[in-house]
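Tokens for chain A. Residues wanted.
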């Protein structure tokens, strides 16, 4: 099928299909007149790619996984392994975000007890700037023009 038919069947734009081909996610052959021609099962592959994206896989991750899927005698097991690895990555991100949240909450708690050192430094800088601004006004803004 040609790119227009594939776009219509998959719900993806022609530009997206070209991009996927450039990334190696899908393949086409060229007809005698130079048009891209896709295999009939490309629509099913695009559905799998979109599902993987919805499950949080990046196009790079999908691209890296496709070769293993095609060469495997048991692609279902490859898919299960990929999903399990993604769960591990998500768990690590959750742990990192939870630690960040705890750190932020601790800083909020501490700032309620005593002003943040950064805040104190900022107040000092503002006071010095105000002092210099006052001196400039007293001295008549001795600027060289």
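Reply:
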């Amino acid at each position: 099928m040609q790119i227009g038919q594939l776009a219509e069947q998959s719900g993806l734009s022609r530009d997206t299909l070209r991009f996927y081909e450039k990334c190696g996610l899908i393949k086409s052959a060229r007809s005698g007149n130079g048009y891209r021609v896709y295999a009939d099962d490309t629509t099913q592959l695009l559905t799998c790619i979109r599902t993987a994206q919805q499950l949080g896989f990046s196009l790079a991750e999908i691209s890296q996984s496709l070769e293993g899927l095609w060469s495997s005698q048991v692609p279902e097991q490859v898919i299960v392994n990929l999903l399990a690895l993604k769960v591990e990555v998500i768990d690590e991100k959750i742990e990192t975000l939870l630690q960040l949240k705890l750190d932020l909450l601790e800083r909020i708690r501490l700032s309620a007890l005593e002003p943040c050192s950064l805040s104190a430094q900022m107040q000092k800088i503002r006071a010095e700037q105000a002092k210099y601004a006052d001196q400039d006004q007293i001295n008549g803004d001795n600027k060289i023009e």
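The chain has a mean pLDDT of 87. Residues 20 and 26 are 6 Å apart (CA to CA).
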